[in-house]
Amino acid sequence: MELTLKVEGMMCPKCENRTKKALEAVAGVENAVVSHTAGTAVVTGEALDASALKAAVEAAGYKVVG
After folding, report:
1. Any idea what the CATH number is for the domain that residue 55 is in?
2. Gap between the Cα atoms of 4 and 1, Å rounded
């Protein structure tokens, strides 16, 4: 399964790493590819919970807009 999240607030590679670590800590996530320039996070894994992914991104200090 793959989900793409639109993320606002990431400004640099450090923001990408923070978001990636937060997403990969969520149960079921196998990998997260995050781009601050595109403003996206592409998450792959089994039985992904969109609300848990959103909560992880927001806990890291960024906003999920789609």
Report:
1. 3.30.70.100
2. 10
Distance CA 66, CA 50 (A): 10
CB 6 within 8 A of CB 40: yes
For every one of its 66 residues, what pLDDT tens digit does the chain have, with 9 covering 90 and above?
999 999 999 999 999 999 999 999 999 999 999 999 999 999 999 989 999 999 999 999 999 997
User: How many domains does one find in the chain?
Assistant: 1
* Run of H or E residues at 15: helix 13-24
Q: Whole-prediction pTM value? A: 0.92
H or E element at residue 47: none
As beta bridge partners, residue 29 has 45
In which domain, by residue range, is 46 found? 2-64
